[in-house]
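REQUEST ID: PR-0412
SUBMITTED BY: lab tech R.K.
PRIORITY: routine
TASK: structure prediction, single protein chain
INPUT:
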Amino acid sequence: MDPSNSTQPPGRSALLDSTGVLLVNVIFSALGTLLLLIIIPGFKEAFVKAKLAGIDMSKKTKYEVPEAQGVICGAVYLVIMFMFIPLPFYNEFSSTRIAFPHNELIEYLAALLSVCCMIFLGFADDVLNLKWRHKLWIPTIASLPLLMVYFVNFNSTVIIVPKPFRQWIGADVDIGLLYYIYMSMLAVFCTNAINILAGINGIEAGQSLVIALSIVTFNVIELNGDCHDAHLFSLYFMIPYVAVTFALLFYNWYPSRAFVGDTFCYFSGMTFAVVGILGHFSKTLLLFFVPQIFNFLLSVPQLFHFIPCPRHRLPQ
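STATUS: complete
OUTPUT:
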């Protein structure tokens, strides 16, 4: 019942050639992967000296591993996306006969602003060790630019009712403000769901990579459908994300030489929320989070302190 699935945004420009632009995106992403593989080990000492390091509690051998490496991953991602900004709009930049699609550029920039905010706030969490009650409203604040752009460009809050229920409810329902609350909560869920399912080498980056590859596959399949432009927009964000996450996973895999930190979880969750909302497949996005939803439900007694919740939920 996704309102965004029922409405296609105003047509995005055909661009230089969507295949050519995607190819450049892939090249930038590959360069980002190589850069991360080089610089992550180089920053180890700097993070350890800054006391951003921890002991792997699930191993008998105790040695310091740099934490918050998601900030390096996020920084490289932003560099890739900033360098990529002109390319989807190359035709409009180079021709005075084509009206510039300001609404599309605003979407792109608002999406980057939300991701950038979450990287900053995630790093603040890694440094300041924020409490859970703070972690709930941080993604809500960071999603505000996204919701404003959605309101200005689309403002569609009509959901399509599944066929078995249409005889009672009708074909569609306008839920109004509730849909904006849903989108805000989606950002909160995506960031914290990845953060909750953690504690084993490679699990944060690994689950994020699986979700990202699932989204990329879905986008590629849907490129031939009615929402071609929305899924192309999603690919612009997800291909670089897959690239930087792969590089981080390389060092986070067992035995871990880098911990991703809350920065990566926040960065990942907001990136998924951005493409789900502006790519118009927020309902489908939740299907890719089924394991995280199950883990959240399993963790509810501890999260709400019905039973004791130690900081590191590890067996004795």
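NOTES: The beta strands are 53-55, 64-66, 158-160, 172-174.
REVIEWED BY: pending
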